Structures are given as structure tokens and as C-alpha cells.
Amino acid sequence: MKDLEVGCALLIDLVPVFSLLLAVFALCVAYWQIKVGRSSTASAQAHSIYQQYLLMCMENPVLASGKYEPQSDNDEQYAKYTWFFSSMLFAFEQVLEAKPKDEQWKETIKAQLFIHKMHLAKSSTAASNQWYLELQKLIDEVKRSH
């Protein structure tokens, strides 16, 4: 009987330890769920933004080609291209803010920037250094490439 009492007392003494371990485990699971949820949300946001950019490209294939040259000082189509270009950079900035460490997104964006490299080199918008740091790095990298 004495052994049973000692065993019960030991279990009772261990209840706070087990409770603490259970609470720590629950916190770890909750943290993991939040992290996974945020990552999923960020991925969905990046895909949605890029899909909007692709729709803009399909609606404006001449502008999306990156080869449009101004025909005159008052070329309305070139003005549209500069707005297209700014919208593109804004979309890329949002994608990179959502997924800043995703190398696949960086490569995708860099490939698109290469298409518009000619305008990238002369654009005051691209040169403003007011873009999200990860986008600015890609802009600078593309501008330096040959």
C-alpha cells in the first residue's frame, strides 16, 4: 500500500511537468500552423498578382514584348508603354514582398525584366531607387548584365 501511495504522489508531482510539456507542444503546433498559413496566403497572393500581370500582357502584347520604341515625342502608345512598365514593376514588387526569399519568383521576375531591359536602362521610374530592396537588386542586376 505504501508503494502505491508513493507512486501516486510521484505522479501528482509530475502533473505540472506534463502540463508544461503539453503546453509547449501546443504552442509549437500553433506557431507551425500560423507559419504555414502565412506562407500559403503569401503564395496565393503572389500567384494572383502575377496572374493579373499576365492578363495585362495578353491584353497588350505589343507593350509586353518590351520592344516598343517611341515614334515621336508625343507618342501616345509609348506613354501607355511607360504606364505598362510601371504597373509591371509594381506587380513585381508586390510578388517579392509576399515571397522575398523565393528564388523561383526572383528568376521569373528577372526573366521579365530582361524582356524590358532596353527601357529599364533609361527609365526614371526604374532608377528611382524607391522600390522594394529585392526588386531593386534585380533591376540593378539586369541593368548591369550584357
Q: Could you walk me through the main structural features you see in this protein, from its secondary elements to its overall organization?
A:
By secondary structure, the chain is mainly α. It has one domain (41-144). The protein contains six helices and no strands. Helix 1 runs antiparallel to helix 3 (76-98) and helix 4 (103-115) crosses helix 6. The radius of gyration is 27 Å and the shape is rod-shaped. The model has no long low-confidence stretch (mean pLDDT 86).
- Describe the main β-sheet briefly: none
Compute the number of structural domains.
1
Based on DSSP secondary structure assignment, what is the total number of beta strands?
0
Overall average residue pLDDT: 86
> How many helix segments?
6
Helix content: over 70%
Classify the secondary structure makeup into a structural class. Answer: mainly alpha
**Which regions contain 5 or more consecutive residues with pLDDT less than 50?**
none
N to C succession of SSEs: HHHHHH
Shape: rod-shaped
Query: Any idea what the radius of gyration is?
Result: 27 Å
Q: Alpha-carbon distance between the termini?
A: 86 Å
Give the percentage of residues in beta strands: under 5%
